D-3-phosphoglycerate dehydrogenase (Ornithinimicrobium pekingense), 396 residues
Amino acid sequence: MTKFAIQTLNAISPVGLQRLDRDVFDVGTDIRRPRAILLRSADLHSVEVPSSLYAVARAGAGTNNIPVDRLAALGVPVFNTPGANANAVKELVIAGMLLAARNLYHAADYTRDLVADKHLSGADLDKQVEAGKKQFAGFELPGKTLGVIGLGAIGVLVANAAQSLGLKVLGYDPAVTVKSAWQLSPQVEQVASVEELLSRSDMITLHVPLVEGTRGLINAQRVALMPEGSVVLNFARGGVVDEAAVLEALDSGHLHAYVNDFPSEAGAIHPKVIALPHLGASTGEAEDNCAVMAVDQLSDYLLHGNIRNAVNFPEVVMARTPGTTRLGIFNENKPNMIGQITAALAEAGLNVAEFTNKSKGEYAYTLVDVEGEVKDALKERILAIDGVIRARKIEG
Ligand SMILES: NC(=O)C1=CN([C@@H]2O[C@H](COP(=O)(O)OP(=O)(O)OC[C@H]3O[C@@H](n4cnc5c(N)ncnc54)[C@H](O)[C@@H]3O)[C@@H](O)[C@H]2O)C=CC1
Ligand SMILES: O=C(O)C(=O)COP(=O)(O)O
């Protein structure tokens, strides 16, 4: 059997990689015609998609670094790992709230300077510590209001944690899932608009994907709605915030701080910005969780054609029927596709043992287990059906 070649474009946790049986998979950075790409934040937009490619797996949540639509049109699923790094981000958001509320970043700089630059020690150091501390006096979290925009895997954890720290929590998500709604603390108040959330929050935190609809979500008009002295936390993506508008509001004193995970040239050196080097998912635990989930989903797809957690195709999982050959077929979501596919199978004299088809947006995916030999001519016949994008024969 030819091995599946998997190219890794970022450091992926060995806890995940070791789940790939090396008798079945070749794994490395230097693979020329990969069947699959396994990555974190590497930018795939500028990379030519190799014709050999069957799948892309993102060990993480955000897929804005991947040409998801272009790959869907080629019948290439893009997997991600929903929730696998959510706790790591939640903890950093809580840390970010405290950094801003207690002015910790500047306070630590102040004490370092007393020793490193001013060379103070002993009683002189104690004196300056006590004299300087008043400029860093902050505020406490209980009683303050946190607005959470995006109540998915991360937003729900942040909302619940903030609630248990004594904050009043407002949430906004126009497409909240049933799963999120079940997990969300009943004390979190859902508001009807971003505007309402902004005008009632002392701090806001963003947990939406970067897509066309969320680019520049926090802009000058919306910043103006926030109360004087409020804080913006952005652990989603840089592009969700119009940073120039936020910097202006920091300069005018309207905003107190901007804590984010996506440094820009202007932001990184601004005195009221705390810019971290994209650390949200950088814990051993999150890296292991994401790698395990990405690897398991990817190998299940390569070996069995099952699709779980693809952002561009529906969830299609079917147990293998012993003694059959499996076909995985991607097609446009339009009428009479199933009829034409099953007609082609019947013409070839093949009996269908199991069949499942699901659609998501513009595309659909079929898994079918057939009894008898699947000849190349049948695959060609299926590929010739108008609207079929890709067909793959998966041996048992
Ligand atoms: N800083 C970091 O290292 C990390 C950043 N992220 C970022 O966080 C994002 C969210 O991650 P998850 O919570 O795991 O994703 P998720 O898919 O579970 O949740 C996203 C939520 O945003 C909602 N949403 C979409 N558009 C919206 C809008 N216009 N207004 C309000 N809500 C909207 C969706 O309905 C969904 O409930 C990722 O897409 C990624 O960009 C994720 C992990 C680590
Ligand atoms: O999962 C995400 O969306 C992240 O932003 C984490 O990115 P990373 O895997 O740390 O490069």
